[in-house]
# Entry
Amino acid sequence: MSRTLRIILAQLNLVVGDIQGNLMQLINAAKLARDTFSADIILFPELSITGYPPEDLLLRKTFLNAAIEGLYEFKEKVHGICCVVGHPYLTEQGLFNACSVIHNGAFLGRYAKQHLPNYGVFDEGRYFTAGKETCVVSIQNIPIGIVICEDLWFDIPVQQAVKQGARLILAPNASPYEINKHTTRLRILTQRSRTHAVPIFYTNYVGGQDELVFDGDSMVVDATGEMCHHAGFFTKKLMPVDIEITDIHAKIIPTPLALPSEEEQIYQALVTGLRDYIKKNGFSGTLVGLSGGIDSALTVALAVDALGKNNVKAIIMPSRYTSEISMEDACALVHTLDITHEIISIEPLFLAVQSSLTIKEETSLTQQNIQARCRGILLMALSNQTGDLVLSTSNRSEIAVGYATLYGDMIGGLAVLKDVPKTLVYRLANYRNQLNPIIPQRIIDRAPTAELAFNQKDEDTLPPYSILDKILELYLDQEQGIDEIVNQGIERNTVEQVVALIHKSEYKRQQAPPGIRIHHKAFGKDRRYPITSGFKQ
Amino acid sequence: MSRTLRIILAQLNLVVGDIQGNLMQLINAAKLARDTFSADIILFPELSITGYPPEDLLLRKTFLNAAIEGLYEFKEKVHGICCVVGHPYLTEQGLFNACSVIHNGAFLGRYAKQHLPNYGVFDEGRYFTAGKETCVVSIQNIPIGIVICEDLWFDIPVQQAVKQGARLILAPNASPYEINKHTTRLRILTQRSRTHAVPIFYTNYVGGQDELVFDGDSMVVDATGEMCHHAGFFTKKLMPVDIEITDIHAKIIPTPLALPSEEEQIYQALVTGLRDYIKKNGFSGTLVGLSGGIDSALTVALAVDALGKNNVKAIIMPSRYTSEISMEDACALVHTLDITHEIISIEPLFLAVQSSLTIKEETSLTQQNIQARCRGILLMALSNQTGDLVLSTSNRSEIAVGYATLYGDMIGGLAVLKDVPKTLVYRLANYRNQLNPIIPQRIIDRAPTAELAFNQKDEDTLPPYSILDKILELYLDQEQGIDEIVNQGIERNTVEQVVALIHKSEYKRQQAPPGIRIHHKAFGKDRRYPITSGFKQ
# Structure
């Protein structure tokens, strides 16, 4: 005997804490799935009522109550389709990261996540108690197992569900983007489905939430471990998948997938994270201090791609050290992007600070920081006047070694490139220019300079970025020690200098704006280092 | 038969990550305990080799290796006394929060913490695997049980140790100060010791570590639950305690204790946190922007008490809105404290910013923020020149509702009053003046004002601080909802206004300097809120 189920993977962009807004999205999606797609089941992402991650909102009783009220409202309002909805669930045994299976006003089952990630950016052990029970529900007489996100990374939950008869697995997820994350997810899904000969339906969020970006990547993997459906990256989608279940196997008709390049994925992650941070926080406009250098050029390009040219304003703030080509290139970029701009010299301000203080050496670090902070004060004043949000332009390499001025170029509501190393900044600029050439080639070609002193070059102070970024990858991402890095052929002095700078600038990072995370170990919630520390290796 | 043991509680001030420095302190303390006190046992705090909390240093192999090398070095170097030393311990089963019992170059036993706190400021679930084994070691033929910190908050670990014959319990701790923490600790210790009729020796850290302050409060509780020895608060101490163990009971001769007042404890916590942040980070001097108001007055008083008058410099930065009495009071304070000061008008700078921009309304928020940021730029320039650290003076009430300028008065390396509500600022000022009157009474008596506009008063914008602080306590510390707070007799409009301001200013707090934590829920690691959030209740 054979039965066919139509399952919708709901790849949605929800907002943390906006229970009423999320509910409306879930209800609309479920009705669309029922009426337009004639689907049997709709599978929402993890904690879909609250958005992910709700963080310490989960410690508030009023929040948990509102989430449960939202769940019951959903249950009453959606009939005629079976829905898998994620929500926090408080019982006498503790708070669970749960999902409920709802059909025609009734709960068919409820599952509580068994494996709670408590590493990297995840703090689920802070809030939740681990579930212990397998959940297999019968939908149209087909036994279906449910697991949540991290559960897939371990063998037992799927194994137990299959042991209890599950013919397919539904998995709601909240899995943020990282470079290569798709590959990792697919590897896990392949392994799990193949081992237990069961298809897995994997739904994930799309959209930005503070430092996190969810890339979608919802997919279906068949019982042989082959990916056969994919909902795409960085786009909302209701993806219908038909599965034919016979007594001996479950069959899914495959569709092909073309993976975007790494640069495209990263660029889209930044665009998505930027757009959602601005929109979800109620801003429309942004301000970017444009220097004529590559970081602010890429930032403004990303902002225009994310928000449209009418929502980005460039502020060009030259000083006595600003070269002519910087001004030309900044103006050329503004012209190409067709965005409004303002040119405000920092000289009067710089002179006023100097006259208020007695600063001797003209090229001292103090003088350089003053310039960066003069720009900061102007940008923030404009932001206060217009209500536009300032985008910070510092990149990951600079922030790692503290080559940035706190309260100066580090100001802003969002640091778009905070997790983008300088070498990747170039790759992304080149990628963007391939679509259509917007960043003047000279910006890409010239040697990086902060222009806070005459003829200054970044490489006067720092190792070449190719070497710096290599050290950062080994030291920060791979957690290697100094000796290990030196053994890979990088000069010890350079490694020690960089490592010392990383430790020394911890205090700056802890006052930095949030940034969009694209690495496994970024400088946000996934880096929890003491400022006061005697460990310098 | 009766035997007497002399046990030293080592209430030490260690430095996170400074393994060699900590080792030297541990070795010196052990030798002193052996040679001067003729002690049998010395009990160090939790993770004493690494300091607490090491945070993500625990994710680095080189750090874990260095800690274990430190442990072995200690084992070789200290003979003739039994030592209980805390350290991280990596095995094939995972990383454990362990302590080793060391005697004459041998390990007598090793215990791994069973209950790992993963709430509030604690992230132990991120790093450690929970131990499962009870540890009872025989020292001079007396069976002694070991538990670590959080283990005491549960019944099983002590129960199991006693069941396996333990006649007394040694407990290394890393328990940070909070208001009323001593009472909580004593309650737990009393309950635990009385239930199992066993004396407990409790050692804790003293000293500051970023936002945390350890208050010491090491103590011994006898088998009836009575506290009979106390090592004092906020001071290093090697406290010898003799215990006479007969076949039927363990007897400790009690010493009396006078608890300091709450104001004194808090004041000492702030002094300790401030002093250690400055010293452990290699600074000597500090800069404080002095306004003539109560917050900067208390901050500078704390700084002088912590660091001495030669290490505190006041910068007075008047504007057109600064009243005469503010100048007089600031100068009076500087005079009383006998600290150096500088007066720098912000007018030239303020005018320069205004001339660079077109700002219409003179009293707009933009104008006010510009003034605060002019002060910020001057303070930071002085900090860059001198190497002195800027102390931020914003209090908890302001930071809660965002009544502070990001990159303006919020700048600094440490926000001393970040966790001190305005009403407590007054209590502490009065407490300090009782010791000797240093803060001019007029500063305490006048209505709070930011002086960023003519005749401005904080209460023009905010509810009276007595009401504001009450709402903050109920909403932040007790996690109550709006309705609950209103039911306690506070006007709904006011509650809703304050709650809205709290949510709206999350982005500011996430770029704020670290502060010294004195509440159970402060604005540091114990507050993990999304910036992007639709939950406004």
